[in-house]
Design brief:
This protein is 50% helix and 14% strand. By secondary structure, it is α+β, with helices and mostly antiparallel strands. Strand 1 and strand 2 form a beta hairpin.
């Protein structure tokens, strides 16, 4: 009886440890593209990936969703849409905060 109780306690502790590890790995993991772009910088590569994701959404079934963050939108505006901004406007960046979208640039 004692051995059974001990084995049950060890199994319960192992399950709790595994669960805690899974939760911690998700919390401590670096942000993934499209979820939270806090550490992601705008780049030509990110612009290309973002446009591929948009094209995938367009080609997929209707009703699909796509979430884009600051860095993704900034990358598209800066590197993938030549001629969108007038001459003399450089370093465009998109900021999203509480439902507001703001485009800032150097003139």
């Amino acid at each position: 009886m004692r051995m059974r109780t001990l084995l049950g306690a060890v199994a319960l502790l192992a399950l709790l440890a595994a669960g805690a590890w899974l939760v911690w790995s998700r919390v401590a993991a670096p942000p993934r593209l499209g979820e939270d772009d806090a550490g992601t910088a705008a780049s030509p590569a990110l612009a290309e990936v973002t446009l591929d994701r948009v094209e995938g959404l367009r080609a997929g079934p209707s009703g699909g969703q796509l979430a884009l963050g600051d860095a993704e939108l900034s990358s598209v505006v800066r590197y993938a849409l030549p001629g969108l901004l007038p001459p003399g406007v450089t370093d465009p960046a998109v900021h999203i905060d509480e439902g507001r979208v703001e485009l800032v640039a150097r003139v």
